Amino acid sequence: MDAVKAPAARRTGAVDRLLSLAARDMSAVDALVLARMDSPVALIPALAEHLISAGGKRLRPLLTVAASRLCGGDGDNALKLAAAVEFIHTATLLHDDVVDGSSLRRGKTAAHLIWGGASSVLVGDFLFARAFELMVETDSLRALGILSKASRVIAEGEVLQLTRSHDLDLDQATYLEIIQAKTAELFAAAAEAGAVSAGVDERQVQALRDYGLSLGLAFQLVDDALDYGGTAESLGKNAGDDFREGKATLPLLLAVSRTRAREGAFWERTVGRLDQQDGDFKRARELIVGAGALQSTLDLAQHYAEEAKSALSTFPAQPWRLALEELADFAVSRTA
Known about the structure:
Elements: H1 8-21, H2 23-36, H3 43-52, H4 59-70, H5 77-100, E1 104-105, E2 108-109, H6 111-115, H7 117-137, H8 141-163, H9 172-197, H10 202-229, H11 232-235, H12 241-245, H13 250-272, H14 280-290, H15 293-311, H16 319-333
Antiparallel strand pairs: 1-2
Helix pairs in contact: 1-16, 2-5, 3-7, 4-5, 4-9, 5-7, 5-8, 5-9, 8-9, 9-10, 10-15, 10-16, 13-14, 13-15, 15-16
């Protein structure tokens, strides 16, 4: 599993540099998030705080702030948009865990196992509503359009993934379409909205959208690889969840295509019919690693990380750009 490991100093330094630059802004974003998840209905803040207080990398709101500051923006609209992005992301996590039946999220018991699926879905809806309230407060119809579209595209991606679960014939192009919609679109929208809040020209807005999209693709590809190469302790969720749920992610699809002649019956039973037994995940992981599917997935993630860094070439060399370039490197070197 060495392919998905990296020196801790490299991982920490890349994110810490960006967090240091954005420390004051992110403190303000966190305060906004805390204030806006409040409600007289006690279950709402309790359930929302369970997930939000568990931490997470806050990469998406951090992207909004960083994009705005890279473009010279210094107003508060970027902070409101960043908080909106965090609410959209958290809402999708609540919904996804119900759909997937996940037991862990960010190392904690999934909210739906504590409060029930209905409560998780409804609190997710509340967070979506809060996100749109924050967007409206910026008086930016364009930013509202960007994040509204992202919310719609994310839902489409999740539905497409749901309809193609257990599909061993899913092609790589469709897989990339799914992860672009369900993951990369919010990265792209987060960066694009930040640029728009700074009032820069279209070339820079598009460059930051391109950066976010490529970063999001790299991030999800590594996530899918980690499901077969990580541990529950490092991931904050159970390793092998994708396999147990029959999700057709790239490591699995590549392994199936490369081993189907001799292992077709195994893949059809475990993924196609979800008839799984003890030891099946271990065998699947061995086949995925042995077929080079894990490394191929990581190689594609590296390609997108390089594309993300290339998109920033339109900006002059300065601390924010350097930090965002390092974030792209972090996306493919992380272990969680």
